[in-house]
Amino acid sequence: MSQSLIFITGATGFIGAHVASQALSAGYRLRISIRKEAQIDALRTLYSKYADQLDFVVIPDLSSPDAFASALQDVTYVFHLASPLPGGGGSDFEKDYLQPAVKGTTTLLDAAQNFPTIKRVIVTSSAIALIPMGALFSTEPIVSKEGINRSLAVDPKMSFPEEPMANAGLKYQASKILAHRATLDWAAAHNPSFNVISLHPSFVFGRSLTDPRSISSNDYLWQSLTSPQPIIPLAPVDVRDVAEAHVKALSADVGPTGEVAEFLLNASEREGWSWDAVAQFAKEKFPSVEVLLEGPYGVTPQFETARAETLLGMKWRDMQDTVGSYLEQIVELKGKA
């Protein structure tokens, strides 16, 4: 059981809560960054059996130059998950999407250089940082793989469509592409003594450890199930698998320092995923859910996940496990309403 100290941002979010839970279960100590002191009590309750492994630090603005001045003392590993979400509030691309995503990451990387105890910084990016702009809304086949970010064209001054979902989705994707590029540029410029690891999950589904009504990619699954056609291409990964990848990235052989190790995280048809299978499973196992999904389903993106499977030892949960864990929680909530 490791007693190394991990500094984590974004632990109050859907993915971050699972990452924190699995890291604590593996024996790591956590220093959790929160924006407001009022968030501490809920986290202490959520992780009550790990009370002696918890520490908290209040950082209102992660992009502030001195945000991490003392937060990284004695830290061995860093998990950086905090990032703006599509539809999470604010519509200005530069102010609400791009700057928080880029500055939050580069400021943390700058600070990490001042602490020789740090061995690895794991940044949670997204699979859409490795997909051409707008490709998810295209009828053309999509292939995502590591190493292509610099080839993706993004104009920070581009105009965005007025339709709300496309507007937020494209702003989010552009910010993810440019934030990951900033990570690559930072590593190339600074040649850090620690490993920089970038994880790229697709659409993350599963049971929430915090408030299931808060914004998360589960919303896309629910809206797809309750609409005649899915609102997104099928690109799933279980939130527990994403959390497991974070913990495994702490010790896996990921290559030399000074380079950014990228890992795509995504389940596929091998794990029983198709929109038709999702709809049939939901109808059979959760009859109280009004499933309207009937297709057509469009193109299924392809993700090259061999690196995560080989170097991190990842195996992906199947469709029934992921969808079932999410819908069980939704049915429970509706029963309490």
Automatic annotation (TrEMBL):
GO molecular function terms noted in the UniProt entry: oxidoreductase activity, acting on the CH-OH group of donors, NAD or NADP as acceptor
Keyword Signal tagged: no
SUPFAM superfamilies named among the record's database cross-references: NAD(P)-binding Rossmann-fold domains (SSF51735)
Residue ranges annotated for the NAD-dependent epimerase/dehydratase domain, each copy included: 6-259
Keywords (A to Z) from UniProt: Oxidoreductase
Pfam families: Epimerase
Gene3D superfamilies named among the record's database cross-references: NAD(P)-binding Rossmann-like Domain
InterPro entries: Epimerase_deHydtase (IPR001509), NAD(P)-bd_dom_sf (IPR036291), NAD(P)_dehydrat-like (IPR050425)
UniProt similarity note: Belongs to the NAD(P)-dependent epimerase/dehydratase family. Dihydroflavonol-4-reductase subfamily.
Name used for this protein in its record: NAD-dependent epimerase/dehydratase domain-containing protein
Taxonomy of the source species: Eukaryota, Fungi, Dikarya, Ascomycota, Pezizomycotina
